[in-house]
Amino acid sequence: MLMLHHIGKSFHGQSVLRDITFRMSEGESILLLGANGAGKSTLIKIILRMLQQDHGEMEWSGTRPRIGYVPQSPSIMGNLTIRQFISYVLSLHGKRSQISTVLKDAGLDEKSKMLAENLSTGQMKRLLFRLAIAAKPKLLIMDEPTAGMDLEAKRLFRRQLSAIRADGIGILVTTHIPSEAEELTDRLLYLESGVIRVDRAIEDIRRLRQSISFRTDSKDEKLLFSLGYTLRDGVFQKLTDDADKELQLLIQRNIQLKQLEIKGETLKRYVEGLNRKGAGL
Per residue in 126-155, is it b (16+ CB within 10 Å) or e — as a string? Predict the structure, then answer.
């Protein structure tokens, strides 16, 4: 659907994006991460044509698709009521008949006469998300979409996002809370100082490192400690790159395993490691 070739962008002589190259397939869901100042918002604005890159090319396969956008810091015309604001945005896409649906889906049907500028950040994000979906986009781009939302609103947002993924809509989302998007994205793009440092499938990341934990009646604490296990609240734990090999070793040592759990690497822990490396820690 989208291909970026060697995209670069500078401001006042300072490079913000350097040699950005990646392909996004139709219906793919990408999580865009990086520390503050890594270039995430700049990249999004270039894809949206809100900024022009200094060099490099951006190509769409076929006609440029309709794109829905939920910005990090929304701004609206303060003299409009919520209903008027929705009507205005939908009219741009020929979807004015969906005003009532958007109000209901955003949980604002009883506040339609309130000035839109008086919405909380979380309420505005919910509204902009529903407006973006109402436009029937092929690609949905979201910059910190859950900022300002309470826990219940975040749960609802994840359910709604899961539903639109099932409809084959491509998603490009950036957030400072990776765990909120881990189950809803297929692939991680990690920017560091304007360069793509990681381009990897989320499922591959989960396989990188696994945690193994269990209880045991065996009197082999010294042996387990020597194998690198820690003991907490009666549970032995260890991080490993090969859980199958680790299990074989435990069985060979006749360790009795109870309540065995094997969990894959979490995106949160993986990204924290990337952030530490980027900070030189």
Answer: bbbbbbbbbbebbbbbbbbbbeebeeebee
